[in-house]
Amino acid sequence: MRNDRAHFAVICLTLALVLLTPTALAADHPLSHSIVSYLPMPSSGEWTQVAVAPDGSRAYFTDAYERVAVIDMSDDSLITTITLPNNDFIGGITVGPTGRTFVTSRTRLMEIDPSTNTTVNNVAAPWTWEGHIVVTSDGQTAYAAGGDEIFVIDLSGGGASFVDTVPGGLVNGLVGANPGWSTGWLDAYRIALSPDDDRLYVVGDRGAGGLYPLVTIDGLTGGSYAGLTLNTVDMPNAVSAGGEPQIAVNAAGDLLFDSYGNVWQTSTMSVYQTVALDAWSNWDPSCVAQSPNGAYIYYQGWGLSSGTSRRTTYGGEELLVASGATYDLVDLDGLGSNGLTGINMPEGSGWDGLGVYNAHEMVIHPDGDKLYFAAGGSGALSIALSISPTSGLIVPDRGGNHGNVTVRVVGSFTAGTAVALRRSGQSDIAGTNTSVFADGTIETTFDLTGAQTGKYDVVFTPPSGSAWQIAQGFTVEEDREEATLDLLGDRVIEAVVGAPEAIVLVRAKNTGNVDLEDLIITFNLTAGTRFTVTVPPTIPGVATEPAEEHVADDQPVRVWVSRLPPQRTYTVEVAVAGQDTSPATWDVEMFGIVGYVQGPSSGTTAGVTLTRKDTQREGAIGELCTFGDAVIKGINAELRRRGENSLSATGEGVVGDVIRQVAIEYGAAKVSSIIAKALAQLVVTALVPQAMPVFAVTFGAVSDIKSCFDFAVSLVTFGVIFPSDPNDKLCAVGVGQYMRGSETLSFRIRFENVATASANAQQVRITDVLDDDLDWDTLVIGDSSHPDKLSVDLNATTRTITWTFNALNLPPNVTPPQGQGWVEFTVKSEASLADGATITNQARIYFDLNDPIDTNVVQRTIDRTPPTSAVAALSSVSNSTSLAVAWAGTDAGSGVQDYTVYVSRDNGSYSAWQEQTKATSATYTGEVGSTYKFYSVARDRLGNTEPAPSEADTTTAISLQATEQPAPACGCGGASAAMVALCILGLWRGRRT
Q1: Which listed residue, 15, 185, 280, 641, has the most CB atoms within 10 A of its CB?
Q2: How many angstroms separate the Cα of 349 from the Cα of each of 283, 357, 569, 606?
Q3: pTM for this one?
């Protein structure tokens, strides 16, 4: 019988949250509440350009033909429609700093009088091609593009006349005055002016290589238009598709943005940073605008692959929002389950009725609170942005009170500026490791451990001048550690010898509110796959390390990120190629996870026998193992001296003593370097820190190079403690068998035609009957392994999902994954489920005419009940200032995660003494004559937190002075022997568990 057995699994990953505070529901970004409205435009127009008055009073929209619609920006009403003379195509419109409004057509330059809404200064133009126009900041000069020329217009004296840069004969523009440009000059598609009026930026027509040239013309304020400097650079295609690019210059003039997502440093005309617009697969960008305060960059475009499931988002018009501080796209609804979200724009009626816009332009209101958008045949829109004037200046604008939080602030800061958080009644929290980047953005790190929650002023003190602040610009809140991993690209890639490389972007994002340190991104590739890993720097503007080619084996690829601040992403580019030899083609399956470097669990080392190994080793890992061997050798010698054969529970001090001596012999810096180099080799990254915070386990047997490699791996364990993004179709739901009930369950059903099967499987059918406790209305059918062969049937009455693969021809899985397949879906639990309710899910798989195969049962129990805890009773009177305080707790569901113990002195207010600790005892040092009260609050692994008791668990009074004991040296008191050793090496940094 063919397909005599099948391997399958329903996957709904439950990740151990040992070092992770429970996931909190993400809050919508204020911009997600923005309102998009159509403007009352005249009918039958092709609205192509828009300009706004600098005082925010009027917006002018141009019809491609002879009309200009004037909008009152106070209420977005239509003031009037101006019909221009000559029935000529309109090329550009601009409003100068004094409100003078100019329109260019194919043959004319016209000024609109705002008091009469009529045209004045109607001047014949020396061009035969409509082009864009810009006005200088003093309102005295304008530059207008006309074909392969840029003309100068004198606006002084209230008039408008063209300046002949080469007197005599026809009117010449800048090209005529600089004849050396003629051979290399292209038609000017779009122009922009620097704030100092000295430089003109010109986007030319697409060149022979398919890239648009970006031209700078310098020296405009030098008193003569001859002898200007011209420089040309190609504009990179930062996205998979892109039409004619638009550009915008920021208020300071040091940055230029193009609609492809490139951020240019104008001083060098080099790309400073790239906004990851490719996070939206096949998204065609059209427009770009920056908010006046620099807080946000807006990108408008439309999705080419509308309705396709293999996208981060779906097709249609969207406005993407990027942070001006981090140049990361902002997910406006904060939910990982639906991919990246922007501001959804309504479907349009233009462009063949497909619901998309064409020939459009976007500008922002001078106050930064509204966008105006020319939507071609669909009309025009206004987008009211739901943000405050300071919104987005500080990223993140909140942080957790148990760790470091690195923030960036948009502005024009100078080196040496100090930053601090200030709140009445509290000591200032000074920023450390402060840096000012080339664009004037400042970055600093606040240690918020133990900080009082609430609003804080952000105070900036420059090296000279007065301090200033953003009032209540930062919020301290309860800490939350979260991260997601997103694979942008196909997870299953057909690798072909000689074919171009397939690119997959592996993107980690910190969705919590504290810095994540020592993050490990892990991904797997099918063995034998040739690949390169491009690891970008963590500081914008620094060159990317060159990629080296590798061949995948059975070991995962690991990338180490030293620090990932909140709301920031880190993207690794993986280029996958086929082998140089047969097989000529095969599938490369890729999946990824993100987690921490974790330390060893506490406990005894009794029974571990240490043996001496003298094998010679080379390279970084060899050095590391040589150091390990030296430690092992020293431990064995010390054990022999003590007459012991193994480490006992009472002999752990041997480890610390030996490592201390070996560290002296090697030098602590040398040891740090060895470990850093070894880890760098393991994680495929060129970033080598000064001292790695790894947790070393120095006893173990190593006898050859492979064992030595394994020994190096044993120095760090890569635990998965964060959920993968749904793009990887894996979801962390709850802890163990428990969940709170608000999560989205993500399932993958896998099937396999085993290698021993006698024939190919032609039809595979999968059925899944949803539990009544699952909300059918939230069901979303996801991706599958063979979408071109799949049909899906949904029966709401029987609550049954049926997937059917026809003509699948799935072969025996001799060469995985050719004989494997899968389907995916997500669904939420019913919101009304009571505590203790249990959800079960199971699928059934049919191979051709064979008997069905039932999958394993996935079960989740709702747990919303907090744990209980108490501090053990102390004697009512203590004769020592050292109080041995112990506490304990129980939880009937997911289990106790940690405890916070509070203390009150002499009936004063309570304060947290031990915060979110896994320990169940500690010593509190009090003072004679004082009375102390204690109580505990427990938290379970799902985040359910015990309410504070109405009165203390225990009370004690100290009546006699006691002898104080000195604190342990090195700041590692109470740590295990291994941690003490790391402290000596300079490698230990505390991490809460």
Answers
A1: 280
A2: 19, 8, 36, 76
A3: 0.60
